[in-house]
Amino acid sequence: MSSKSGKWLNDGVKVISGENLDGNTPQSPGMSRASAINRATAGANKLWAGTVIIDANAKTGAHHHGELESIIYVVNGRARMRWGENLEYICEAGPGDFIYVPPFVPHQEINACAEKKLECIVVRSDQEPVVINLEIPAIEDPGETFWIDPIHADPNR
Q1: List of domains in the chain
Q2: DSSP letters spanning 64-121
Q3: Phi then psi for 97, rounded to 5 degrees?
Q4: pTM flag (> 0.85)
Q5: Strand, coil or helix: what is 123?
Q6: How far, in Å, CA of 111 to CA of 85, rounded?
Q7: Nearest to residue 112, comparing CAs of 156, 62, 54?
Q8: Contact 138, 87 (CB under 8 A)
Q9: How crowded is residue 101: how many other Cβ atoms within 10 Å of its Cβ?
Q10: What angle do CA 145, 107, 90 make, to 5 degrees?
């Protein structure tokens, strides 16, 4: 039996339409972010989820996200990840694949395709935009399209 006046009506399940994502998030050259699940949109306290669209050939510098865990789901395109103390490990993921990034793991995110955008869903274990830029020479040079914003700041500053 359900009650429309019950607690769960306003404090229960939320649907955030893909047409109503919040683009009022830190943006980067070559990359477009939009929040779907956060405190403002859904009342979430422990998770953040959103979309990321990355231009062809865009790359980050080496960084990690402190204690945060991240999950990246590839919708379209090809993602390449490098990780390790010297970014010595590499993997690629395509549509339908999930990427898990554990806490404190040094990594570099790369759109592996020079011709088309990479579309992903990202979920983080907190809403704080924690990014620690590292002085690790990038194996894949970030080149001209560098993600620079409060989350992926220029490591040369």
Answers
A1: 22-133 (2.60.120.10)
A2: E-TT--EEEEEEES-EEEEESTTS-EEEEE-TT-EEEE-TT--EEEEE--SSS-EEEE
A3: -90, 150
A4: no
A5: strand
A6: 21
A7: 54
A8: yes
A9: 19
A10: 95
pLDDT digits (tens, 9 = 90+) for 107-149: 988 899 999 999 999 999 998 878 888 888 766 654 444 444 4
Nearest residue to 77 (alpha-carbon basis) of 107, 54, 105: 54
Residue with structure tokens 């009506």?
9
Q: For residue 149, give the nearest of 78, 60, 64 by alpha carbon.
A: 60
Question: In this structure, what token pair is assigned to residue 41?
Answer: 């949109």
CB 106 within 8 A of CB 87: yes
Spatial distance between the Cα atoms of 55 and 35, rounded to a whole number of angstroms: 18
Q: Given the structure tokens 């953040």, which residue do they identify?
A: 48
| Residues belonging to the chain | 157
